Amino acid sequence: MDSDNALALRGRAECHLQLGENDLAEESYLMALEEEPEEKESWRGLALARRARGDLNASFQAFNQALRIDPQDMDTALGRADLLLAMGDCTSALESYSLALRIDGDNLSALHGKGRSLDGLKRRDEALDCYRQILEQEPDNVMALQEIADGLLEKGDPSQAAEVYGRILAKDQGNTMALLGMARAQSDLMESGQALRYYGELLKQDANCTLAWTGRGEILLRQNDIDPAIESFKRALDIEPQNQDPSWGWQMPSIREEGWMKPGAIIRPPRRQAPARGATGGWEASSVPGGSMPGPSLSLRAPSAWRQMGQKA
To answer: Domain 140-273+284-313 maps to which CATH number in 3.20.20.10, 2.60.40.1180, 1.10.10.10, 1.25.40.10?
Structure first.
């Protein structure tokens, strides 16, 4: 049983944690553990405080201590799994989410985390199964619908992806991630007018969305509508000067002036498959010597990149 002093110290630590005072929270949790070394709540709280201040390895060790004390504690199992996923260790995260699901097989957070871990391991079909299990419990779960739609788009099925994005937008017309996904799906379907409309709706809500400006420029460039395309790439660069994708697109005037692209050349959309992290693909043009134009692909399909925009609550 907790000593009164340990309970008070843990309560103070939780207050510090809620206020974002992570160093003070860690200090109080450590003091509580001096009083009660086998208290799982203090170890778990210490793990959260250490994660919040960026000490991920120390956070992992604290989660392990909490699980040693109570291997069936769902909050600790989920906390450790979320940490491992944030650290990019998808294999270990998958094991931890699987442990959490052995504790509670219907836990939606664990199912979602398992799906994201499988995504990270490129096991897309298994990930989609996890998201569908969520929909069996909550048919309108936006998080799962978004994951499924993103997965369908990555797999090269923009038609089915558009249907799922449509379900999300029917309930929340301002969902920024669904608007972005729908725009990309329509672009893949060669429905340029619809794609531009969805990009426009997204930019009304977030005029600083570089992905939307770049995607808009991508379509305009494909249509050989060069000047508006350049303006879109320029807007993306104004927001994010180090973004090399729109930077390449902004060089289109020099490409045109140097005769690299003949009038009427067809700019084909980038490959549908998402590139590996840090990899670059290429554009292709029917009239370019050698069959390809220099520069990185403008296709930013990875859901993780999309989510950097943030999502409306």
So the answer is: 1.25.40.10
